[in-house]
Amino acid sequence: KQEVTQIPAALSVPEGENLVLNCSFTDSAIYNLQWFRQDPGKGLTSLLLIQSSQREQTSGRLNASLDKSSGRSTLYIAASQPGDSATYLCAANTGNQFYFGTGTSLTVIP
Amino acid sequence: GAGVSQSPSNKVTEKGKDVELRCDPISGHTALYWYRQSLGQGLEFLIYFQGNSAPDKSGLPSDRFSAERTGGSVSTLTIQRTQQEDSAVYLCASSLLTGGVYGYTFGSGTRLTVV
After folding, report:
1. Is A43 within 8 Å of B91 when comparing Cβ atoms?
2. Is A32's Cβ below 8 Å from some Cβ in B?
């Protein structure tokens, strides 16, 4: 069974700092990997989707990378803002379902 | 519709009652998923529908849980004889194609509280 781990579980940074969130998965036979954001009491908002054939995807200040062979993905957030405060989840897709990590709770301090 | 719609957004029920949660996926999305998120826990897969195929029910925690999808669109998750441990946020997601090739789109969830 696919196991997805996210490190760190929580992160607090001052506004303006660049940061990296880590995601690792045990089964490299994935179709794609998706990063989500979850605000308190809300559903999940998709940030980036990386197909298994891709190495990275970028959207604005966000850049996600994927290294299937090592079972790792990173989400890079540039010039963090207080509005980036949320829980970030990665999910590895093995076909019928996505397996989710438990998330990294990010706080950006003004 | 423009997004995945779930109703109700909040539901408080007494222990032992039955509840129905509704999910209206994005129009044209053939795949529909239900997940559960308990307080402080990760997302737990419940059930997956793909077109007219038999659903993957491997994640349903007990026979008190069931789900159906009518006409390949709207889905209803039913929990019978609710227990306090059923309290969680129930999230629905849809995907354009099988295998989530284009990723998931999630609804905003139904927060279920069993008292």
Report:
1. yes
2. yes
Residue B53 in contact with partner chain A when CB distance is under 8 A: no
Nearest to B42 among A32, A97, A102 (CB): A102
Residue found by looking up tokens 């995945």 in the block: B4
B109–A42 C-beta distance less than 8 A: yes
Q: How confident is the model at residue A33 (pLDDT cuts 50, 70, 90)?
A: very high
Answer yes or no: is pLDDT of B10 > 70.
yes
Tell me how far apart the alpha carbons of residues A91 and A97 are, in angstroms, rounded to a whole number: 9
| Burial class of residue B89, CB neighbours in 10 A (0-12, 13-18, 19+) | buried
Provide mean pLDDT across the span A50-71: 95
| Closest-CA distance of chain A to residue B4, Å | 10
Given this model, what pLDDT does residue B54 score?
Answer: 87
Instruction: Give the residue from B34, B38, B56, B37 showing the smallest Cα distance to B46.
Output: B34
Percent of chain A whose predicted confidence (pLDDT) is above 90: 83
Q: What integer best gives the mean pLDDT of chain B?
A: 91
